[in-house]
Amino acid sequence: MDVYIEKISLDQNYMLFVKPKNYSFDMIHRSSMGVHWDDKKCCLYHNPTKNWSVISWYMQITLAVQNEYGATLIATSDTVYENIAPSVQKSIANANQGIKRSGLKPV
After folding, report:
1. What per-residue confidence (pLDDT) applies to 97?
2. CA-CA distance, 65 to 33, in Å (whole number)?
3. Which CATH architecture group holds 2-96?
4. Where are the domains of the chain?
5. For the segment 38-53, what is each residue's pLDDT rounded down to a tens digit?
6. What average pLDDT does this structure show over 67-73?
7. Is residue 107's pLDDT more than 60?
8. Angle of helix 54-69 relative to helix 86-96, nearest 10 degrees?
């Protein structure tokens, strides 16, 4: 199952949030990968105790969703980035390379 990403944001505490379009991953904590679901923001976020890079956490979040739900998170040209440096956006695009999907094109 493909799940497109609506928004990827970084808050003032350097927490990464990944908001999927029209999908809830409220049981993601079962993956035991340091990834959680925020019911209020309707997005995935990471455990703040590990000092990883933004791209490392992005990869961890996508892997947790793949492992727990069998779903593939896809950042597209429609994905909104908030407080994400252009170089990190490019790294996210590189992480999506090779994914062939119909409809929206991966970034």
Report:
1. 63
2. 10
3. Single Sheet (2.20)
4. 2-96
5. 999 999 999 776 788 8
6. 92
7. no
8. 30
